[in-house]
Amino acid sequence: xxxxxxxxxxxxxxxxxxxxxxxxxxxxxxxxxxxxxxxxxxxxxxxxxxxxxxxxxxxxxxxxxxxxxxxxxxxxxxxxxxxxxxxxxxxxxxxxxxxxxxxxxxxxxxxxxxxxxxxxxxxxxxxxxxxxxxxxxxxxxxxxxxxxxxxxxxx
Length: 155
What we know:
The protein is α+β, with helices and mostly antiparallel strands. 30% of the residues lie in helices and 33% in strands.
């Protein structure tokens, strides 16, 4: 799948890069996806590669409105990656940074919506037996397309 995409680095999380990519297929099919791949400085660490692949499998097994879907787990040039649903919006860390910079507060209804959506996603992941290792604000998107206003990878 990765070979049919064009991508650019969007973000770095722990030991991985997140890339915004456009998947292309038959009959002009195109879709934005997020590619998560191991950063170059960690690509020879077998323990990290094993953890990365466990995360990919756990995330792929989760199906919930507030958890982004994993479309593909693969390898390119001997390096693992996984392709996930792209959710249009801002990550929560950027939103909170901007609010603090402006010396404002997140409106209570928005805060309740975000916290509720993240709690539902975490509850589902926990109930499914997935280990929750990444609950950072930068991995939580406040979204403009979903009624719940939030999505998380759940892992």
